[in-house]
Amino acid sequence: MKTQIITLESHDDLISVRDKLSWAKTPRILLVWPKYEKVTLRVLDLKVLQRHADSLGSQLGLVTRRANVRRDAESLEIPVFDSTAAAQKDFWPDPAPRARRVPDAPRRDLRKIRDIIYEKEAPWRASLPGRLLTFTSGVMAVLVLAGIFIPRATVTLYPEAQIQSAIIPVAASESIDSVSLTGSVPAHRLSVTVNAEQSLAIVNEIAIPQSKAQGIARFKNLTQGEVNIPAGTVVSTAKDPPVRYVTLHATLLPPGADEFVDVPIAALEPGASGNAPVNSIMVVDGEIGLSLSVTNPSLVSGGTDSKLIGPSDAERAKLREVVMDNLRRDAESKLHAQISPADLLLMDTFEIVKIVNETYDPPAGQPGKTLVLKMQAEFSVRYVSAGDLKALSLSTLDLSIPNGFAPFETVSFKPLTEPSSDTSGVTHFELDVKRTLLRQLNNAQVFSIVHGHRPSAVKDDLLSRLSLRQPADIIVTPSWWPWMPLIPFNISVDTK
Question: Engineered SS bond to 467: which of 60, 160, 339, 383, CB 3.0-4.6 Å?
Answer without folding.
Answer: 160
